[in-house]
Design a protein that fits this description.
The complex is a heterodimer of chains A (95) and B (377). With 95 residues, chain A is mainly α. Chain A is built from 3 helices and no strands. Chain A has helices at 3-35, 37-46, 58-61. The longest helix of chain B has 39 residues, at 224-262. Chain B starts with a helix and ends with a helix. The chains are: A mainly alpha (95), B alpha+beta (377). Chains A and B meet through helix 1, helix 2 and helix 3 of A and helix 1, helix 2, strand 6, helix 5 and helix 8 of B.
């Protein structure tokens, strides 16, 4: 097989994969509507406000509900205790 | 047209042969390039999907949450505030919420304890999230003992587990009856953690909040929009931080690619000289080099993107998990829903493919307009 043909076949296969990823995204988005329903119902029922991504401290578990300046709540010069604190931006209303 | 296509195929043939002559260097470049695209695409896809998921789920969160502040910190709010809010025009519903945190020394994890739910939970029963069940090895029917505020131990039977599909919002939740909550945390009747209000007309939310702050000056209202904006900024920041961390490796790649592309080796210069001497035009040399850049960057883009897609949406972004997990014991197991938009892909393509092609073309143009005799010497 000529090298250019082999290359075209490779690119074609990669493009098929690329298109498949877009189709897969579409299908899973469609499925997610029903799968997420249980989460949305729970959020509505319990009045949840935050995602369970960082559970180590109350201001990382509920960043939207935390006290103002909560990252430094122990005293104003306190150093950060948790690695997540260095990655979390203060809520929009405090900026 | 056919002539043009055939010419391009011959050029690709020649370019591939030229690349294969420097097999180690070319494959190394392709591997590093694909890795860079993989990292950038993983961060972009992950942050975008998480932001989208948070936006969709938290759309159902309360419109207004009212917290009472005491000495600048969140304090319990008396139930009579509900009466004081009274018949505020535009407020559809108002209720008190009871929730708090419980540190479980057995697994060194923080739980979020709440009351509420669809059915009334009996006093001695609790419903737990799948994160807690995993951490403590519990199932329906098992008992979990919590130590109350005044040292008493309360045993609760687990009556149900929360749906694992909702783990992103419920992994660390523990639901109990309001009476049990008050006994565990020693909170007297007539106090709530905060109040939630819903407003009939969304355009009146700001007006209602203004009235609330006048009526109850010791309270802080938190709007649903603020909750959503918080998550938007959290993920933008996280994505930004990851990009900053990646900058070092991206710059290293840029230097590598620039050096490879611009500092033409003597061998490559000789090759161009010979091509020109045997009759290739400057435009042909440029086209050949364009194909070289295109072959490497397009292949790297597609390999990197596909690997990132599989990593984020099929392997639950396992490479990012340690960063996200931090020091937390409880971490949800969730499979993100892929949200890929055109702008995201276009940005990734623009920043990964085009710079390489441009970096390749310019130095080649400089060499290929030179006299072949001078170049070969």
């Amino acid at each position: 097989m000529r090298k250019s043909n082999a290359f075209i076949v490779c690119i074609f296969l990669l493009l098929v994969g690329f298109t498949a990823s877009l189709i897969d995204a579409g299908i899973r988005q469609h499925q997610a509507v029903s799968e997420n329903a249980s989460g949305t119902v729970l959020v509505q029922q319990l009045g949840l406000t935050d995602l369970v991504l960082f559970t180590e401290a109350r201001y990382t578990r509920h960043p939207s509900q935390s006290d103002l300046h909560s990252a430094f709540q122990d005293h104003p010069m306190a150093l950060e205790h948790f690695p997540s604190g260095s990655l979390l931006l203060p809520p929009q209303r405090m900026q | 047209m056919l002539y043009f296509l055939r010419k391009q195929k011959y050029l690709i043939d020649y370019t591939l042969s030229s690349l294969l002559r420097r097999k180690g260097k070319s494959l190394g470049l392709l591997a590093v390039y694909s890795m860079i695209v993989f990292m950038l695409a993983s961060v972009t896809l992950f942050s975008h999907a998480l932001r989208h998921e948070a936006g969709l789920m938290l759309q159902a969160s309360p419109e207004i949450i009212l917290q009472r502040m005491e000495a600048g910190r969140h304090a319990m709010i008396p139930a009579d505030y509900l009466q004081r809010i009274g018949q505020l025009r535009g407020v559809k519903q108002k209720a008190g919420r009871l929730w708090g945190y419980y540190y479980d020394p057995a697994v060194k994890a923080n739980y979020t304890i709440m009351t509420g739910g669809q059915s009334e939970t009996p006093l001695t029963n609790i419903i737990i999230g799948t994160g807690i069940a995993r951490a403590r090895g519990l199932d329906v029917g098992d008992y979990l003992t919590l130590r109350s505020q005044n040292g008493e131990a309360f045993s609760f039977q687990i009556s149900a587990l929360l749906d694992d599909k909702s783990e992103l919002v419920s992994a660390d939740l523990l639901l109990m009856s309001p009476q049990a909550f008050r006994r565990v945390f020693n909170i007297p009747e007539g106090l709530y953690t905060d109040l939630v209000l819903s407003v009939r007309n969304p355009r009146e939310v700001i007006k209602v909040v203004e009235k609330l702050t006048q009526l109850l000056p010791d309270t802080r209202p938190i709007l649903r929009d603020e909750v959503l904006r918080t998550y938007d900024s959290v993920f933008s920041w996280r994505q930004g931080i990851l990009f900053v961390l990646l900058t070092g490796s991206i710059l290293a790649f840029v230097i590598f690619a620039w050096d490879k592309a611009s500092g033409l080796s003597a061998e490559e210069r000789r090759e161009i000289g010979i091509l020109k001497a045997v009759g290739w035009e400057t435009a042909d040399v440029m086209r050949m080099k364009f194909w070289e850049g295109m072959i490497i960057s397009l292949t790297a883009f597609l390999i990197g993107y596909l690997a990132a897609y599989a990593h984020v949406f099929y392997a639950s972004a396992s490479l990012f998990e340690p960063v996200l997990k931090g020091w937390a014991v409880l971490y949800p197991q969730f499979r993100l829903t892929p949200f890929v938009d055109g702008l995201q892909l276009a940005t990734l393509f623009f920043f990964s493919v085009l710079p390489y092609i441009v970096a390749t073309i310019i130095p080649i143009w400089r060499t290929s307009i030179a006299d072949p005799d001078a170049v070969m010497r």
